[in-house]
Amino acid sequence: MKCSALRAIFTLCLILGNTTARAEFEVRKEKFDNGVVSKEYYFKDKQLVEERHFDISGRFSGWSRYSYLENGHTVRINLSVEKEDYGQITSKQELSNLDSKNRETESSILFRKWIYSDEAPRKLLFIERYETQAPFRVNGKDYENEKGELLSSITFSYASNDRHEKPTGFIEVTPDGKVKTRFSMYEPYDLVQRLRSLGKSEEEIRLHKRHRENPNKFLIGIIDSGFDYNHEALVTKWWNNPDDPMDGKDNDGNGWVDDNFGWEQVKNVGLPTESSTAFQRDDRPLSHGTHVAHIAIGDLMNAALVGFAGDYTQASYIDKISAFIKKHKIRIVNLSIGFPPDTKDLLGLRDGIKAYRRMIDENPETLFVVAAGNESLNIDDRKNRQYPASFEQPNVLKVGALDAPDFSKVTPANAKIAEFSNYGHKTVDILAPGTKVVAASIGGGLISHSGTSMATPFMVHEAAKVWMELPHLTAVQIRQLFIETAQVMTPEAPVLSKGYADTKAALLKGRIDFLKKSPAREEGPNCWNSSTLLAGLSQGVHHTFGSEFAFLIESPLCKPVTFDQLEAGDIVAFRRVDQKGRLLPAAFLSEVHGYTYLKEKKGFTKNGVMPTATYQEQTTEEILNFYRSSEGRNCKINGLDRKDCILKEFAYRCTDIETYMSTQGGLNIFEKDVLLRLSSLEKHLQAYYLHGQEIKFDKDSMLKKIQSDITVLKSQGSKEFVTDYFEMRAHSLDYILKK
C-alpha cells in the first residue's frame, strides 16, 4: 500500500515492508516460523507509538496507536483494517501500569473507555469512566457532541462492593450541574408526591388518583427486565390491586408482599423496578422494560399495567405469574423475550420454556403477544426455533418488526420488514413498528430503541385498543381479527398475515360483525349513528338527536373526499341541496341517509329506526336507489319545491377526537375524563337498544355531572371545538334519556 494513498487518514506516515521508516522512528519486528512478519512495533523517543499485526499469510489484521498523557497514563487507540471503515477508530482506552509493549499487567488500571458504533461510519457513542480502586467497576458515562464538547455525565451508584453487582441507580447531570435524569431501584412509589414534583395541580392529582383506583380497568401484563415506575409517562398507569394494598403485608395470601401492581422476583418485593443488567453495555442506561411498558400503555385511559420483573427463566416464578394472570384476569401479556430451544438443556432453560407453555395453556382467555426475535432468521425452520415465538397455541400473537418508528408514514407500497426481524409464514403472524421507536427511558425522558421487543408492545397497544372497544371477543378472536385485516404489503411480507397491523380496519370489521349479530330491540338506532360509530366519532349506537350527524361530518374531525378517493370506513351521506347547491337548513331536511363505505362498492347501513330494520351490507347503488325512489314524495311532505329539494351524495373521511387532537398537543386529563364518561354512557345505551340491558346506575346524575364538567372545561380554556363536540354528544344523550 502506498503511503500517499493514506495521508488523508494517517497522522503518521509509515511504509510497510521497509526495515526502517522515517529516521525518528525505530521499527522492531516479530515473525512467524515461516518468516512472515507477524507484528511491527514503531517507537519514537523510546516510546511505543504504533503496532501492527499480520496473519500468517501477511494480511494486515490489527492496528493500534499509543499516546502518553502528562499524568503518566497511556491512551490506546484501536483502528479498523477493514475496507469499509479503514483507519476509523473502533475503540479507545486510557490505562496505567502497562508493560514495555503496552500490554496490561496485574497492576494495570483502566480509567476510561471510549465506545464506538459497530458499523461504518464509526461514531463515538459514549465514554465509560471506571473506579480506580477495587472493585474497578464502571462508575459513570460521558456523552459528547460531534465537536467533542461534553453534553452530560452519568454517575452510577451501587449497594455494595461486589464486583459483579449491577448498579442500583444513577444520576445524569449537564456540564452546568443541572439534573437531567435520575433513577434508583429503591425509590418508593408515591403517586401523589410524584405528581406534585411534576407540578400537577391538586385537581389533576385527585383525578389521576381516582382513575388509578378504578377496579374495572383493562389489565396489560409486562414480563420484562423491570420498570421505572416513577417515570412521568408511567407513574399514573400502574394497576391498583384491590386485594393487596401497599401496607407491608401479604393481604391476598399468594406469598408476595405488596404485589400492588406487579412483582420483582430478584429483590422479593412488590414493586418491579428497572433492571440494570446492561447499564455498562448500552449507550444509555438500558431501559428495556420501561420502554416496552410505555409503548404498550401509551395514551390508553381505561387500561393499567401489571409488571413482573426478575428471573423470567425460572419455572417456579413463571408458574406464580401464571396463577396471578388467571386470578386477576389480565387480558393481554407482553413477552418481549426469547430463548433458544436448548434441547440438551445446556443453558438450563428447558424448565422455563415448559413453564411458559403451561402459562399460555392455563390462561386461554389471555392474549400473549410475543416477539419474533432479532436474528434475521426464518423461524419456520426447526433449527432456528426460539421460544415463546415458536409456540403454536391460538392465543399467542407473534410479532415481527416493521422498518418504521410508527404507522404514520407506512403504506403497503413502502412498508418493509426490518432487516434484523425474524420471520416465517407459519410462525410469525404480523408486523408492527420496531425501528427507532421513541418511548420512556429509565430515569426520565425519552429514548429510541429498535427490535421486535418494541414491535411487540406496539401490537399490544393496538390489540388493547380494539379489545376494549369489542370486549365480547375472545383472545383467539382478537388475534384472528388482526391477521384477517392486516395491510398486505407489496411485495408480501414473509409472515402469516402477509403484512402489518391495521387497527382501523380491525375496529371496522369487528364493529360491523358485532352490529350484524345485534339487531336493535328498541326503536331508535339508525344509519347515522352506526356510521359515526364505525368512523370512531361516537362509542355506541343509539337514537340521534337533532343535527348531531351534520355537526360531526362538518366538524374538523371529518374532511370531504372525492368518490374516487373512497376508502373502507369513510362515510357517504345523502343530503338535500337547493338548485344553487346550498344545503337545506334543518337537520331532517338536509340529512336523508348515511352509510359506511366498504370495499368493492358496498356499503354498511341500517334503513330506518325500527327494530325490523337490520344492520346490513348492500351495494352502494342499491342504497342510493332506495332513497332516491322516495325523494319526490318526501320533498312534497316537507313542503319543498322539487327544484329546491335535490338529493346529493357527499363523502367524508373522519377520525376520532383523540387522534385529531394528538396533532394539537392532545387532550388534557380533564378532557380525557369527560370523554371517557361520555363514551361509557353511550356504550350502556347501546347495550339497552341492542340487547335490552337495563341501565342500573343513576344515568341522569352521571349526565348532569358530565354537563357541569363541560362548563368547567370552558372556564379552564379548553378549545371551543372540543367543548362543542362534548356538548353535542351530551345533548344527544340527554334527549335519549328524557325520551
UniProtKB/TrEMBL annotation:
The active site is at 224 (charge relay system), 288 (charge relay system), 453 (charge relay system). GO terms for biological process: proteolysis. Gene3D superfamilies: Peptidase S8/S53 domain. GO terms for molecular function: serine-type endopeptidase activity. Keywords: Hydrolase, Protease, Serine protease, Signal. The keyword Signal applies. Residues 217-487 form the Peptidase S8/S53 domain. Residues 1-23 form the signal peptide. Belongs to the peptidase S8 family. This is Serine protease. It comes from Bdellovibrio bacteriovorus.
